[in-house]
């Protein structure tokens, strides 16, 4: 019988169970910080709503987006905590001690229909209670031109 000879001193490795096969999970890449002195900020259109996110139908017609819009100039390395603090400046409901802010990106899918994709949540008063505070727009795959929906709960 012909075959490849195995070296005598080779030790057998255990075969991993099926669910763990494949490449090891990669750590989520952290985005590079932006030099805010040299980099032009982007315009982020933010739509706030008390109780939940705007439904995707609210964004279906260009120019007829929800009226509760706030425009923020920021960078892709802005964290959800930074955005929380900015929203608190313009939305009194977001300042309540027990308020939670849910963030979602709003963008058109390949068919042109808008999608509302939740990406994170923060508490109005951080106190280190949420890991999402330190997530940046870039970490969450934000694309310039996406809208940001903020549900104040």
From TrEMBL:
Gene3D superfamilies: ASAP complex, SAP18 subunit. InterPro entries: SAP18, SAP18_sf. Residues 14-27 have a biased composition (Pro residues). It comes from the Eukaryota. One of its GO terms (molecular function) is transcription corepressor activity. Residues 29-38 have a biased composition (Basic and acidic residues). Residues 1-38 are annotated as: Disordered. GO terms for cellular component: nucleus. Belongs to the SAP18 family. This is Histone deacetylase complex subunit SAP18. It comes from Dioscorea zingiberensis.
